[in-house]
Amino acid sequence: MKPDYFKLKQTFVENHLRTKDKINLSHRFHTRVLNVLGYDAEQTNYDDLFPLSEKAVLPVRHILYRGEQPHLMVMEMHAMIKTKDEEEPDGLFDQSYNVTENGEDLKSTTQKYHRSQWADIFTVPEGISISPMVINKAVSELFLLPTYQRPKYILLCAGNVYFLLEAEKWFRGSYLQFDLEILFDDATIDKNYFALFYLLLGKEQLAPTAEMVLMEQLDEDAHKVAYEVTKDLKEGVIHAVEQLANEAVHYLTREEDMTYDTINATWLKDDCLMMVATIERDDLRQLHQK
């Protein structure tokens, strides 16, 4: 996989390729990567694009099920390989499958994104549009589908970068991003990085036929650890507040010049939060005795 990637990058950098050619090269590279990860990458769903409505579809490459429930969808986007004298390539929140103007497809040869560039991989029937067109909005739309259609995960292939998206975390702005170039550099030092990449994205762990999904197990373990930490912090805060309250009560009961039956105690925090407690003198003594 490493030689294949650097060959792909070299072709991108050294040749003045059309966008359509880059997409075709990236698609073939994705096929090799997905095969390594255990997916049947040769068989795609592109002959039957995923319908969102009667007039709108999304190009989902693979749909993997657990029982009758969609579990994982695999999608593709433009490779994020930077070529010579170019700006940083558009990423997850900038790329689009198509661009329209006043409802009409833009077919200029200089158009950065147009569905015709994907023509060797999938074709969209006449009268049907790709919608939403922007990648991140398309992902959100899939994660908002009814439960029986909604995937738990989306694996998004972008040439040198792979995204693993989970439905609940996506709407909190969280996702996993894997950069192959960094992976290959780090793997020269520690071969375990290859194993980690495979464990997180491989079919047997991400979309298994067995009961346990590795990512779900990791998520559950993380919640357990977070709960224990939160519990410890909560107990520590309660203890600290009790100590402060006891010290305050102790101090106030020792004031020899206390001649009022009522004491007003004021606490300030960062000049913006004020709490005023009115404490009866007899209650104060009872608190101190406790």
> Helical amount among residues, as a percent range?
25-40%
- Percent of residues in β-strands: 15-25%
Q: Tell me the domain tally.
A: 2
Global Rg? 29 Å
Sheet with most strands: strand arrangement: 3-4-8-9-10
Poorly predicted spans: 256-279
Beta-strand segment tally: 12
What does the largest sheet look like? 5 strands, mixed
Which structural class should the secondary elements be placed in?
Answer: alpha+beta
Task: State the distance separating the first and last CA atoms.
Answer: 70 Å
So what's the oligomer here?
Answer: single chain
Could you give the order of the helices and strands? HHEEEEEEEHEEHEHHHHEEH
Key features of this structure:
alpha+beta, 3-stranded mixed beta sheet, 40% helix, 20% strand, globular
Offer a concise description of the structure.
This protein has 290 residues and is α+β, with helices and mostly antiparallel strands.
Can you walk through the features of this model?
- The strands form four sheets. The chain has a five-stranded mixed beta sheet.
- It is globular.
- The model is unreliable at 256-279 (pLDDT under 50).
- Helix 1 (2-14) packs antiparallel against helix 2 (19-36).
- It has two domains: 2-209, no CATH class; 223-289.
- The longest helix has 40 residues, at 214-253.
- By secondary structure, the protein is an alpha+beta fold.
- Helices cover 40% and strands 20% of the residues.
Chain-wise SSE layout:
Elements: H1 2-14, H2 19-36, E1 50-51, E2 56-58, E3 60-66, E4 69-76, E5 100-101, E6 104-105, E7 129-130, H3 135-143, E8 153-158, E9 161-166, H4 167-170, E10 176-179, H5 180-187, H6 192-201, H7 203-206, H8 214-253, E11 262-269, E12 273-280, H9 281-289
Parallel strand pairs: 2-7, 4-8
Antiparallel strand pairs: 1-2, 3-4, 5-6, 8-9, 9-10, 11-12
